[in-house]
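Revision sheet: structure tokens.
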Amino acid sequence: MFIGHWAPALAAAAASRKAPPLALLFIGAQLIDWAFFAFLLLGVEHMRVTPGISAMNPMDLYHMPYTHSLLGAAAFAGAVWLARSLLLRDKVGALIGATVVLSHWFLDLLVHVPDLTLAGSPPKLGLGLWNHPWIEMPLELGLTFGALWWYWKARNPALPRVVALAGVLLLLQAINWFGPVEPEVTAGTSYLAFFAYGLATLAAWWMARSAAPQG
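Predicted:
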């Protein structure tokens, strides 16, 4: 799951005017992966390229106990809830933001081969839709663009900006699915991920600027 992680962010912003700003929800939806690629740079968590480990994704995510355990994901979600509750005294927005953060783990559970954990140690979990591209690909596109359509109908942003965000997301997903695969993990792996997440977030922020005001 890549762009599909932003579907809960779009859905939350469409469903409630009390949701945090869309750009923050975009960051929250991928917060676990922002942290993972930072930890990868620091040597705290690890991955390697193993061709054939799944039909769609050669990433062997063999050590990510802090970011991709259910307990770790809940801790990130709890930190978001606590920060927004204390700093902005916004308990509804805090709950929405925390839910978007936690959604990341459950969407990963659908597609990952068994590499997720409950608390950082085996058993490892994953339903493995990466081995079934004829299911995973339409599911990811359907979730993402269904949520984007809902946001457009609910918040009425400028259509050209909606199309621009859709184009950015499609481009990123196409590169993820069909682009060249690096033979090994390097620092550039993390920097490329940060660039992709940042680009999508910037496009979402730009689109949301033209939407109906919250409140």
